[in-house]
Amino acid sequence: MSRKLKILKFEVPFINRIFQNSLFREFSHYSISTLIYQLSRVLVELIAAKILGPTLWGIWYLLNLIIAYRDVLNLGITNGMNREVPINLGKDDEVKAKQVENVTFTTVLLSAALASIIISLSLLLIKDPNIVNSLLWLIPLFVVTQFYYLVNTSLKANSLFHYISKKQFIFSVIFPVFAVPFTYLFKLEGFIAAFTLALLISVGFIYKISSISYAIRYDWNEVKNLIRIGFPIMAVGIAYTFLNTVDRWIIGIFLGAEELGYYSMAIIVFGGMTLFPKVISQQLYPRMAYDWGKSNSIEELRYWTWLQTKYTGILIFPLLVGVLTIFPWIIKTFLPQYTPGIFPLQIIVFGALFMPFSAGWGNVLNIIDKQTYYLVVILFAIIMNLGINYLFVVNGYGIEGIALGTVITFALYNLTIMIIGRYFLKRI
Protein backbone atom coordinates (compact mmCIF):
# COMPACT_ATOMS: atom_id res chain seq x y z
CA MET A 1 0.00 0.00 0.00
CA SER A 2 1.33 3.46 -0.88
CA ARG A 3 2.56 5.88 1.71
CA LYS A 4 -0.22 8.33 0.93
CA LEU A 5 -2.92 5.69 1.33
CA LYS A 6 -1.43 4.61 4.63
CA ILE A 7 -1.66 8.15 5.92
CA LEU A 8 -5.24 8.53 4.73
CA LYS A 9 -6.25 5.27 6.44
CA PHE A 10 -4.34 6.09 9.64
CA GLU A 11 -2.27 2.95 9.24
CA VAL A 12 1.07 4.73 9.58
CA PRO A 13 3.58 2.91 11.78
CA PHE A 14 4.83 4.64 14.90
CA ILE A 15 8.14 5.64 13.28
CA ASN A 16 6.31 7.36 10.41
CA ARG A 17 4.08 9.26 12.83
CA ILE A 18 7.18 10.56 14.59
CA PHE A 19 8.60 11.63 11.21
CA GLN A 20 5.41 13.45 10.30
CA ASN A 21 5.38 15.29 13.62
CA SER A 22 9.05 16.16 13.21
CA LEU A 23 8.41 17.45 9.71
CA PHE A 24 5.49 19.53 10.97
CA ARG A 25 7.59 21.06 13.77
CA GLU A 26 10.41 21.82 11.36
CA PHE A 27 7.98 23.30 8.86
CA SER A 28 6.40 25.44 11.60
CA HIS A 29 9.75 26.81 12.82
CA TYR A 30 11.00 27.46 9.30
CA SER A 31 7.72 29.08 8.25
CA ILE A 32 7.61 31.34 11.34
CA SER A 33 11.22 32.41 10.83
CA THR A 34 10.51 33.06 7.15
CA LEU A 35 7.45 35.13 8.05
CA ILE A 36 9.50 37.24 10.47
CA TYR A 37 12.35 37.46 7.91
CA GLN A 38 9.96 38.63 5.20
CA LEU A 39 8.18 41.11 7.48
CA SER A 40 11.55 42.56 8.48
CA ARG A 41 12.60 42.93 4.85
CA VAL A 42 9.29 44.41 3.74
CA LEU A 43 9.23 46.95 6.57
CA VAL A 44 12.84 47.97 5.95
CA GLU A 45 12.23 48.24 2.21
CA LEU A 46 9.14 50.39 2.73
CA ILE A 47 11.10 52.70 5.06
CA ALA A 48 14.01 52.84 2.61
CA ALA A 49 11.59 53.54 -0.26
CA LYS A 50 10.14 56.47 1.70
CA ILE A 51 13.61 57.87 2.49
CA LEU A 52 15.03 57.45 -1.03
CA GLY A 53 11.99 58.35 -3.13
CA PRO A 54 10.69 56.57 -6.25
CA THR A 55 13.62 57.41 -8.57
CA LEU A 56 16.51 56.25 -6.32
CA TRP A 57 14.46 53.27 -5.16
CA GLY A 58 13.84 52.38 -8.80
CA ILE A 59 17.62 52.49 -9.41
CA TRP A 60 18.07 49.97 -6.56
CA TYR A 61 15.64 47.60 -8.26
CA LEU A 62 17.63 47.88 -11.48
CA LEU A 63 20.95 47.22 -9.68
CA ASN A 64 19.39 44.35 -7.75
CA LEU A 65 18.97 42.50 -11.03
CA ILE A 66 22.73 41.83 -10.89
CA ILE A 67 22.22 39.94 -7.63
CA ALA A 68 19.21 38.13 -9.06
CA TYR A 69 21.35 36.64 -11.86
CA ARG A 70 24.26 35.70 -9.59
CA ASP A 71 24.11 31.97 -10.47
CA VAL A 72 25.07 32.48 -14.12
CA LEU A 73 28.82 32.46 -13.45
CA ASN A 74 28.54 29.24 -11.39
CA LEU A 75 27.26 27.36 -14.46
CA GLY A 76 24.79 25.50 -12.27
CA ILE A 77 27.31 23.87 -9.93
CA THR A 78 25.44 25.02 -6.81
CA ASN A 79 22.23 23.62 -8.28
CA GLY A 80 24.01 20.35 -8.96
CA MET A 81 25.18 20.24 -5.35
CA ASN A 82 21.62 20.82 -4.14
CA ARG A 83 20.53 17.66 -5.93
CA GLU A 84 23.61 15.46 -5.55
CA VAL A 85 24.21 15.90 -1.81
CA PRO A 86 20.81 14.51 -0.67
CA ILE A 87 20.92 11.78 -3.33
CA ASN A 88 24.37 10.63 -2.13
CA LEU A 89 23.25 10.83 1.49
CA GLY A 90 20.31 8.62 0.49
CA LYS A 91 22.88 6.14 -0.84
CA ASP A 92 24.85 6.37 2.48
CA ASP A 93 27.84 7.89 0.68
CA GLU A 94 28.77 10.77 2.99
CA VAL A 95 32.31 11.03 1.58
CA LYS A 96 30.98 11.72 -1.89
CA ALA A 97 28.47 14.25 -0.55
CA LYS A 98 31.27 16.12 1.25
CA GLN A 99 33.44 16.12 -1.86
CA VAL A 100 30.61 17.65 -3.85
CA GLU A 101 30.22 20.45 -1.26
CA ASN A 102 33.95 21.27 -1.23
CA VAL A 103 34.25 21.38 -5.01
CA THR A 104 31.18 23.63 -5.14
CA PHE A 105 32.67 25.98 -2.51
CA THR A 106 35.89 26.34 -4.48
CA THR A 107 34.02 27.07 -7.69
CA VAL A 108 31.84 29.70 -5.99
CA LEU A 109 34.97 31.46 -4.72
CA LEU A 110 36.35 31.63 -8.26
CA SER A 111 33.07 32.86 -9.74
CA ALA A 112 32.72 35.56 -7.05
CA ALA A 113 36.20 36.85 -7.88
CA LEU A 114 35.35 36.89 -11.60
CA ALA A 115 32.10 38.74 -10.96
CA SER A 116 33.92 41.38 -8.91
CA ILE A 117 36.29 42.01 -11.82
CA ILE A 118 33.41 42.28 -14.32
CA ILE A 119 31.47 44.75 -12.14
CA SER A 120 34.63 46.82 -11.61
CA LEU A 121 35.28 47.02 -15.36
CA SER A 122 31.66 48.04 -16.00
CA LEU A 123 32.28 51.19 -13.94
CA LEU A 124 34.39 52.52 -16.82
CA LEU A 125 31.33 52.61 -19.08
CA ILE A 126 28.92 54.43 -16.71
CA LYS A 127 28.66 58.22 -16.48
CA ASP A 128 26.03 58.64 -13.73
CA PRO A 129 27.92 59.14 -10.40
CA ASN A 130 24.98 57.80 -8.36
CA ILE A 131 25.06 54.48 -10.24
CA VAL A 132 28.88 54.33 -10.11
CA ASN A 133 28.94 54.73 -6.31
CA SER A 134 26.15 52.19 -5.87
CA LEU A 135 27.93 49.66 -8.10
CA LEU A 136 31.09 50.00 -6.00
CA TRP A 137 29.10 49.01 -2.91
CA LEU A 138 27.41 46.26 -4.88
CA ILE A 139 30.71 44.35 -5.25
CA PRO A 140 30.98 43.27 -1.56
CA LEU A 141 27.22 42.64 -1.53
CA PHE A 142 27.58 40.29 -4.50
CA VAL A 143 30.45 38.34 -2.86
CA VAL A 144 28.65 38.02 0.48
CA THR A 145 25.42 37.01 -1.25
CA GLN A 146 27.24 34.19 -3.06
CA PHE A 147 28.51 32.77 0.23
CA TYR A 148 25.16 33.33 1.95
CA TYR A 149 23.27 31.30 -0.62
CA LEU A 150 25.96 28.62 -0.81
CA VAL A 151 25.62 28.00 2.94
CA ASN A 152 21.85 28.15 2.56
CA THR A 153 21.97 25.49 -0.16
CA SER A 154 24.23 23.24 1.93
CA LEU A 155 21.89 23.51 4.91
CA LYS A 156 18.88 22.66 2.73
CA ALA A 157 20.66 19.77 1.01
CA ASN A 158 21.49 18.31 4.44
CA SER A 159 17.96 19.02 5.72
CA LEU A 160 19.35 21.31 8.45
CA PHE A 161 16.45 23.71 8.28
CA HIS A 162 16.62 24.64 11.97
CA TYR A 163 19.90 26.47 11.22
CA ILE A 164 18.25 28.30 8.33
CA SER A 165 15.51 29.35 10.75
CA LYS A 166 18.12 30.71 13.18
CA LYS A 167 19.91 32.53 10.35
CA GLN A 168 16.68 34.18 9.26
CA PHE A 169 15.85 35.24 12.84
CA ILE A 170 19.29 36.84 13.21
CA PHE A 171 19.00 38.66 9.87
CA SER A 172 15.50 39.87 10.76
CA VAL A 173 16.80 41.56 13.91
CA ILE A 174 20.01 43.15 12.64
CA PHE A 175 18.86 44.24 9.17
CA PRO A 176 16.60 47.06 10.40
CA VAL A 177 19.18 48.06 13.02
CA PHE A 178 21.71 48.76 10.26
CA ALA A 179 19.47 49.63 7.33
CA VAL A 180 17.29 52.43 8.73
CA PRO A 181 20.09 54.72 10.03
CA PHE A 182 22.49 53.85 7.19
CA THR A 183 19.88 54.64 4.54
CA TYR A 184 18.92 57.89 6.28
CA LEU A 185 22.56 59.01 6.53
CA PHE A 186 24.10 57.64 3.33
CA LYS A 187 21.08 57.09 1.02
CA LEU A 188 21.26 54.19 -1.44
CA GLU A 189 24.91 53.37 -0.70
CA GLY A 190 24.01 53.10 2.99
CA PHE A 191 21.15 50.72 2.25
CA ILE A 192 23.44 48.45 0.21
CA ALA A 193 26.12 48.50 2.93
CA ALA A 194 23.55 47.62 5.61
CA PHE A 195 22.21 44.77 3.50
CA THR A 196 25.75 43.42 3.11
CA LEU A 197 26.52 43.59 6.83
CA ALA A 198 23.26 41.90 7.84
CA LEU A 199 23.84 39.02 5.42
CA LEU A 200 27.49 38.61 6.48
CA ILE A 201 26.83 38.58 10.23
CA SER A 202 23.88 36.18 10.04
CA VAL A 203 25.52 33.66 7.70
CA GLY A 204 28.91 33.93 9.44
CA PHE A 205 27.39 33.04 12.81
CA ILE A 206 25.45 30.07 11.44
CA TYR A 207 28.48 28.78 9.52
CA LYS A 208 30.44 28.83 12.78
CA ILE A 209 27.87 26.95 14.91
CA SER A 210 26.49 24.50 12.33
CA SER A 211 28.03 21.26 11.04
CA ILE A 212 28.58 22.83 7.61
CA SER A 213 32.24 23.34 6.71
CA TYR A 214 34.17 23.81 3.49
CA ALA A 215 37.68 23.16 2.26
CA ILE A 216 39.44 24.20 -0.94
CA ARG A 217 39.22 21.32 -3.38
CA TYR A 218 39.12 21.35 -7.15
CA ASP A 219 38.33 18.23 -9.11
CA TRP A 220 37.72 18.92 -12.80
CA ASN A 221 35.83 15.66 -13.33
CA GLU A 222 33.52 16.48 -10.43
CA VAL A 223 33.07 20.01 -11.74
CA LYS A 224 32.06 18.67 -15.16
CA ASN A 225 29.62 16.25 -13.57
CA LEU A 226 28.05 18.97 -11.43
CA ILE A 227 27.77 21.26 -14.46
CA ARG A 228 26.15 18.44 -16.44
CA ILE A 229 23.58 17.93 -13.68
CA GLY A 230 23.20 21.47 -12.46
CA PHE A 231 23.41 23.56 -15.64
CA PRO A 232 19.91 22.58 -16.86
CA ILE A 233 18.55 23.21 -13.34
CA MET A 234 20.41 26.54 -13.22
CA ALA A 235 19.11 27.42 -16.68
CA VAL A 236 15.61 26.74 -15.39
CA GLY A 237 16.30 28.93 -12.34
CA ILE A 238 17.78 31.78 -14.39
CA ALA A 239 14.97 31.55 -16.92
CA TYR A 240 12.46 31.61 -14.06
CA THR A 241 14.27 34.63 -12.60
CA PHE A 242 14.00 36.35 -15.98
CA LEU A 243 10.32 35.42 -16.13
CA ASN A 244 9.93 37.06 -12.70
CA THR A 245 11.86 40.17 -13.76
CA VAL A 246 10.52 40.74 -17.29
CA ASP A 247 8.21 43.39 -15.86
CA ARG A 248 11.18 45.25 -14.33
CA TRP A 249 13.13 45.18 -17.59
CA ILE A 250 10.17 46.47 -19.60
CA ILE A 251 9.43 49.26 -17.11
CA GLY A 252 13.10 50.22 -16.82
CA ILE A 253 13.57 50.41 -20.60
CA PHE A 254 10.27 52.00 -21.66
CA LEU A 255 8.95 53.88 -18.61
CA GLY A 256 12.01 54.78 -16.49
CA ALA A 257 13.28 54.45 -12.93
CA GLU A 258 10.51 56.52 -11.33
CA GLU A 259 7.75 54.28 -12.70
CA LEU A 260 9.77 51.26 -11.57
CA GLY A 261 9.87 52.84 -8.13
CA TYR A 262 6.05 52.99 -8.08
CA TYR A 263 5.83 49.42 -9.38
CA SER A 264 8.25 48.25 -6.67
CA MET A 265 5.29 48.12 -4.28
CA ALA A 266 3.81 45.32 -6.42
CA ILE A 267 7.21 43.60 -6.60
CA ILE A 268 7.67 43.68 -2.82
CA VAL A 269 4.22 42.27 -2.13
CA PHE A 270 4.23 39.62 -4.87
CA GLY A 271 7.72 38.53 -3.82
CA GLY A 272 6.50 38.12 -0.26
CA MET A 273 3.50 36.05 -1.33
CA THR A 274 5.55 33.71 -3.53
CA LEU A 275 8.23 33.29 -0.87
CA PHE A 276 6.13 30.96 1.28
CA PRO A 277 5.40 28.44 -1.49
CA LYS A 278 9.16 28.52 -2.17
CA VAL A 279 9.78 27.75 1.51
CA ILE A 280 7.62 24.65 1.22
CA SER A 281 9.39 23.62 -1.98
CA GLN A 282 12.83 24.12 -0.42
CA GLN A 283 11.97 21.95 2.55
CA LEU A 284 10.48 19.11 0.56
CA TYR A 285 12.93 19.06 -2.37
CA PRO A 286 15.84 17.41 -0.50
CA ARG A 287 13.45 14.82 0.95
CA MET A 288 12.10 14.08 -2.52
CA ALA A 289 15.65 13.72 -3.88
CA TYR A 290 16.70 11.59 -0.87
CA ASP A 291 13.77 9.18 -1.35
CA TRP A 292 14.37 9.02 -5.10
CA GLY A 293 18.06 8.20 -4.55
CA LYS A 294 17.12 5.56 -1.99
CA SER A 295 14.18 3.78 -3.64
CA ASN A 296 13.35 5.30 -7.06
CA SER A 297 9.73 5.19 -5.93
CA ILE A 298 7.23 6.97 -8.17
CA GLU A 299 4.65 6.71 -5.41
CA GLU A 300 6.96 8.59 -3.04
CA LEU A 301 7.31 11.43 -5.57
CA ARG A 302 3.54 11.60 -5.97
CA TYR A 303 3.13 11.75 -2.21
CA TRP A 304 5.59 14.64 -1.75
CA THR A 305 4.06 16.53 -4.68
CA TRP A 306 0.57 16.14 -3.24
CA LEU A 307 1.85 17.38 0.15
CA GLN A 308 3.44 20.45 -1.43
CA THR A 309 0.28 21.29 -3.39
CA LYS A 310 -1.83 21.02 -0.23
CA TYR A 311 0.43 23.22 1.91
CA THR A 312 0.81 25.82 -0.86
CA GLY A 313 -2.94 26.09 -1.33
CA ILE A 314 -3.51 26.47 2.41
CA LEU A 315 -1.03 29.38 2.56
CA ILE A 316 -1.91 31.34 -0.57
CA PHE A 317 -5.58 32.18 0.03
CA PRO A 318 -5.28 33.86 3.46
CA LEU A 319 -2.15 35.69 2.22
CA LEU A 320 -4.12 37.09 -0.70
CA VAL A 321 -6.90 38.40 1.54
CA GLY A 322 -4.41 39.92 3.97
CA VAL A 323 -2.41 41.65 1.25
CA LEU A 324 -5.45 43.15 -0.47
CA THR A 325 -6.71 44.44 2.89
CA ILE A 326 -3.54 45.81 4.45
CA PHE A 327 -1.10 47.06 1.81
CA PRO A 328 -3.23 49.66 0.00
CA TRP A 329 -3.90 51.24 3.40
CA ILE A 330 -0.17 51.18 4.28
CA ILE A 331 0.77 52.90 1.03
CA LYS A 332 -1.95 55.58 1.27
CA THR A 333 -1.13 56.28 4.91
CA PHE A 334 2.68 56.10 5.07
CA LEU A 335 3.91 56.20 1.45
CA PRO A 336 1.57 58.56 -0.40
CA GLN A 337 4.23 59.28 -3.04
CA TYR A 338 3.86 55.62 -4.12
CA THR A 339 0.07 55.76 -4.56
CA PRO A 340 0.35 55.07 -8.34
CA GLY A 341 1.65 51.61 -7.38
CA ILE A 342 -1.52 50.50 -5.57
CA PHE A 343 -3.56 49.36 -8.58
CA PRO A 344 -0.68 47.30 -10.11
CA LEU A 345 -0.22 45.71 -6.67
CA GLN A 346 -3.90 44.76 -6.49
CA ILE A 347 -3.70 43.19 -9.95
CA ILE A 348 -0.47 41.24 -9.65
CA VAL A 349 -1.23 39.44 -6.37
CA PHE A 350 -3.84 37.33 -8.16
CA GLY A 351 -0.99 35.65 -10.06
CA ALA A 352 -0.10 33.82 -6.83
CA LEU A 353 -3.44 32.00 -6.88
CA PHE A 354 -2.13 29.71 -9.61
CA MET A 355 0.98 28.58 -7.72
CA PRO A 356 -0.67 25.55 -6.04
CA PHE A 357 -1.29 24.03 -9.49
CA SER A 358 2.44 23.69 -10.23
CA ALA A 359 3.59 23.14 -6.64
CA GLY A 360 5.92 20.14 -6.51
CA TRP A 361 5.86 19.38 -10.22
CA GLY A 362 8.90 21.53 -10.95
CA ASN A 363 10.82 19.55 -8.31
CA VAL A 364 9.66 16.30 -9.93
CA LEU A 365 10.96 17.38 -13.34
CA ASN A 366 14.37 18.27 -11.83
CA ILE A 367 14.66 14.98 -9.94
CA ILE A 368 13.70 12.70 -12.85
CA ASP A 369 16.10 14.53 -15.24
CA LYS A 370 13.41 16.29 -17.26
CA GLN A 371 14.80 19.76 -16.54
CA THR A 372 14.98 20.51 -20.26
CA TYR A 373 11.20 20.34 -20.60
CA TYR A 374 10.85 22.55 -17.53
CA LEU A 375 13.16 25.05 -19.24
CA VAL A 376 11.20 24.96 -22.50
CA VAL A 377 7.97 25.83 -20.67
CA ILE A 378 9.64 28.77 -18.94
CA LEU A 379 11.14 30.03 -22.21
CA PHE A 380 7.72 30.02 -23.86
CA ALA A 381 6.34 31.87 -20.82
CA ILE A 382 9.12 34.48 -21.10
CA ILE A 383 8.32 35.07 -24.78
CA MET A 384 4.64 35.39 -23.92
CA ASN A 385 5.36 37.75 -21.02
CA LEU A 386 7.61 39.95 -23.16
CA GLY A 387 5.06 40.07 -25.96
CA ILE A 388 2.03 40.83 -23.79
CA ASN A 389 3.83 43.42 -21.66
CA TYR A 390 5.31 45.13 -24.71
CA LEU A 391 1.89 45.40 -26.34
CA PHE A 392 0.36 46.81 -23.17
CA VAL A 393 3.14 49.40 -22.77
CA VAL A 394 3.15 50.67 -26.37
CA ASN A 395 -0.65 50.95 -26.23
CA GLY A 396 -0.45 53.18 -23.17
CA TYR A 397 -1.59 50.85 -20.39
CA GLY A 398 1.50 51.62 -18.26
CA ILE A 399 2.43 49.70 -15.13
CA GLU A 400 -1.16 48.50 -14.67
CA GLY A 401 -1.00 46.72 -18.05
CA ILE A 402 2.35 45.16 -17.15
CA ALA A 403 0.87 43.79 -13.92
CA LEU A 404 -2.05 42.27 -15.86
CA GLY A 405 0.29 40.77 -18.48
CA THR A 406 2.36 39.20 -15.71
CA VAL A 407 -0.73 37.61 -14.11
CA ILE A 408 -1.87 36.13 -17.44
CA THR A 409 1.57 34.67 -18.07
CA PHE A 410 1.91 33.15 -14.59
CA ALA A 411 -1.50 31.54 -14.81
CA LEU A 412 -0.67 29.74 -18.06
CA TYR A 413 2.86 28.88 -16.87
CA ASN A 414 1.74 27.20 -13.63
CA LEU A 415 -0.98 25.18 -15.34
CA THR A 416 1.45 23.98 -18.02
CA ILE A 417 4.08 22.86 -15.48
CA MET A 418 1.46 20.73 -13.72
CA ILE A 419 0.38 19.10 -16.99
CA ILE A 420 3.98 18.38 -18.12
CA GLY A 421 5.02 17.02 -14.71
CA ARG A 422 2.06 14.65 -14.46
CA TYR A 423 2.66 13.45 -18.03
CA PHE A 424 6.33 12.49 -17.53
CA LEU A 425 5.78 10.90 -14.11
CA LYS A 426 3.23 8.57 -15.69
CA ARG A 427 5.75 7.58 -18.40
CA ILE A 428 8.52 6.43 -16.03
Strand percentage: under 5%
Number of strands: 0
Q: Please give the share of residues in helix.
A: over 70%
Radius of gyration: 21 Å
Supply the helix-strand structural class: mainly alpha
Q: Supply the number of helical segments.
A: 14
Major β-sheet, in short? none
Question: Which properties best describe this structure?
Answer:
single chain, 428 residues, mainly alpha, 14 helices, disordered N terminus
Structural notes for this entry:
With 428 residues, the chain is mainly α. The chain has one domain. It has 14 helices and no strands. The protein has helices spanning 3-8, 14-68, 77-90, 94-122, 129-157, 161-209, 220-254, 257-295, 298-334, 342-348, 355-358, 361-367, 371-394, 398-426.
Could you give a short description of this structure?
With 428 residues, this protein is mostly helical. The protein is 85% helix and 0% strand.
Write the layout of secondary structure elements.
Elements: H1 3-8, H2 14-68, H3 77-90, H4 94-122, H5 129-157, H6 161-209, H7 220-254, H8 257-295, H9 298-334, H10 342-348, H11 355-358, H12 361-367, H13 371-394, H14 398-426
Helix pairs in contact: 2-5, 2-6, 2-7, 2-8, 3-4, 3-5, 3-7, 3-8, 4-5, 5-6, 7-13, 7-14, 8-9, 8-10, 10-14, 12-14, 13-14
